[in-house]
Amino acid sequence: MSADNSCPDVSIPLRNLLNSVQCIRDRVKDGESNESSGGFNLQNFWDTLSQAVKAASQEATKLSLSFSKPPLPSPQDCERLAESIQKSVLALSTVYYWLPKSQGMTLRRVVRDATAAVLDGLVQLIDVILSSPLQSLSQEQLTSTGGVWLSCDRFPHLPRDNQAAVLDILVSCTAVVKDAIEEMEQAQAESQDPFSDVLEEEDLVSRGNQDTYWSESDRQLMSPCRGLMKASAACLKKLSAAVRANGSVDTAESIAQLDDLADIAKEVSPSVDDLALSLYPPMDHAAVELNACRLASVVKKVLEIARASHVCMEAEQGWVQFLNGAVDHNLQKAKTLAQACH
């Protein structure tokens, strides 16, 4: 009869460890930072966090190797192993809590998510070990161990301050918006009938033209809507350049302004997606108008927050003003065309 990890003497410390890591992970996901009145050294934080992550990775490796082949660790060894893992997990979570909100909410969310991913990986690894028969190193255990390593390997690539964290978000949002624009332009360029490749000929006939491709009035309305989407992409691209060139983390005010920019910028890509989806046939012109208004509102808010922030110096005022005008022009044109078709 083969041994397995459900042996009570071995499973009890592992189950206790599983519960403990789950609780620590949940606190990391939901908990607050330890705001202190003393000075905070960001470089010291990253150095200490790096060591804590390395220790957690090593503990995961040790745990996996201990249960990779017979014989099982003794109950005493298993207890010591569980205590060592718990100690490394507590150290990792404690260092994360050092990072105060005043260093930037965007940065803190990035570090929180990365820390939680390591703890999620450890939870999965312990769970796999508890549920796997001890015959050989299972594929699930290999995958779970690799998952912890991958999560730990992310840390050297994380943004080191709030400027870098916000810039990552802006660059990502810009790419998503550009993809949406390219998909829409490709659909328009490929055929008058964007559904011809997925519908049988008799289905096309029965659905009628208005359900399968754009009418002339649809195409006219799409032009200013594409203009709005392109203005959104230009806004994010210009804002990224401004944050890269002028973004500062020297004061609490500038850090908070960067967070405000990241938060509002994250609203752009969903608004672009909503407008793009409403442009596909059968087109509801009232829905297009509504989504165009929502996107314009978001982009103008981005421009307003950017203009009032430290990243928008005199050299940036020109593109802010230009894009504000472009948004107003395209929105007015879209509203006029949409209402004419109601």
3D structure, described in words:
The chain is mainly α and 342 residues long. It is built from 13 helices and no strands. The protein has helices spanning 8-30, 42-66, 75-98, 105-131, 139-153, 162-190, 201-207, 209-212, 216-246, 252-265, 268-278, 285-308, 314-340. Helix 1 (8-30) runs parallel beside helix 3, helix 1 (8-30) runs antiparallel to helix 4 (105-131) and helix 6 runs antiparallel to helix 9.
Short description:
Helix content is 76%, strand content 0%. It is mainly α and 342 residues long.
Tags for this model:
single chain, 342 residues, 13 helices
- Distance N to C terminus: 76 Å
Q: Would you list the SSEs in sequence order as H and E?
A: HHHHHHHHHHHHH
Sum up the overall morphology in one term.
elongated
Strand content: under 5%
Structural class: mainly alpha
- Our Rg estimate from Cα atoms comes to 27 Å
- How many beta-strand elements? 0
